Amino acid sequence: MSLDDDIDIVWQANIENSKQICLSNDNLDKNLRLILTSIAEAYNNASHWTIRRQILSIMAKDVTFSTIRIFIPDLTSHRFNMARRHADFEGKGAVVDDTRTPIIRYDDYQLEHFIEFIVSPHICTDLPFGEKQLHLSTGETLLIPLTIRNLAPQRIIEQYYNYCKEYYGDTFRPLGQITLFSILNGCTASIRRSLQGLDSFSAEGSTSFDLLTSIVDGLSTLGIFC
Questions:
Q1: Which domain holds residue 56?
Q2: Residues 31 and 79 in one domain
C-alpha cells in the first residue's frame, strides 16, 4: 500500500466520522426541538401564571431567552427572569407556593383588653400636670391627662403575652404583635428614659420614703422608736 493510499483511507475515514457527527447533531437538534415544543405546548395550555412559571423553570436555566422565544413568542423577559429565579431558589419544576396569609379579624373585647392593660398603673403613670386633647369623629373633644409609659413597646407586648398566657391560658386569644404595635403607636405617650427628669415626681416620692426609712432607723438606734 502506497502513501497515497493511506491518505485516501484517512480522508475517507474523516468524512465518515463527520457524517456520523452531523447525523448525531441533527438527531439531537430534533429531539431538543421536540422537547421544547412539548414544554411550550404545556406552558400555553396552563391556565394560571404560577403553573406557567413552574413549567418555564424547567428549561429557563439551560436555554437562552431568545431560543425560548422561538417556541413561546409572547414570553416577556420579566416572566423569563422570574422562572429562572424560581429555579434557583425553589428548584426546577417545583410547585409555586402562592398561599396568602389570611386577614385576621379581631373582636372589640380583644382591643379593650389590651387598652386596659396598657393604661394600668403597672404600665402607665399619670403626670400631675398637663392634658392632651383627643378629638373624636363625632366632633366631641376629650381631655386626657398626660401619661408616661414605664416600659418600651417591645417589653409591654412581651409582658402582655405573658400575662394572657398565665391568667387565661388557651381560653383567650390576644391580638397579633403587629396589631399591638400599631395600637401603641396610635395611643401616644411618653416613654420613661430614666427615673430623674421626666418622672421627677416619682423620684422625689422615692427619695421621701428613703428619708423616712433612715429616720426610723435612727430612732430605733436611739431606742426611741421600736
A1: 3-89
A2: yes
